[in-house]
Amino acid sequence: MIIFILAAIILVLGGVYYFISRLLRKINEAQRKLVQLATIDDLTQLFNRRYFFERFNQEMERAKRYQRPLSCLILDIDHFKHVNDTYGHLSGDQVLIDIAQILRNNCRQSDLAGRYGGEELIILLPETDSPGAMMIAERIREMIEQHQTVDDRGEIIRVTVSMGVVSLTGPELEKMDKNERIVQYADDALLQAKKDGRNRIEIYQTSME
Known about the structure:
Elements lengths: L1 H38 L9 H18 L3 E8 L2 H8 L1 H18 L5 E6 L2 E7 L3 H17 L2 E2 L5 E2 L3 E8 L1 H5 L4 H17 L5 E3 L6
Parallel strand pairs: 6-7
Antiparallel strand pairs: 1-3, 1-6, 2-3, 4-5
């Protein structure tokens, strides 16, 4: 009789353990999804703007503290409106998804890649000086230029991007109170790249002020 009672208790405890394990898995999955919704851009799967700039502030303070270089890169898809007008917005979305994947494939674990807005993407490169930032930017530019996006109708779409880069040393960062100034420098360089013919990279120079 005791054996049957023990067996029944074990069976009940096993069922309770299984139920609790499933419940915990569901809770963990729900928490993971909530974190993803709060930090990840739904289309590109890059960091969303809010979370990107939270991390930007942290990296900026760290670079100041340890007097390390920091670089920022903004890229914009050339003539993206023409892509949407010609192939449709769903195809334009696929172009963005493909470019975001190229960014992820070419970013180091310490780098941050995010969606800045619309067809503009942004990358923060900690511990990276000007030559290093330009090397990464050029590699990404070339890979995007060579890439072919195939939409759901089999249409082949090719695009190029223009990029603006800014690189600051530790002492230069000490003069910065907000990351918006750094982003503005990269944006100024991006504007110059567009003025100079697109599908190119410009690095911020003080003459752009």
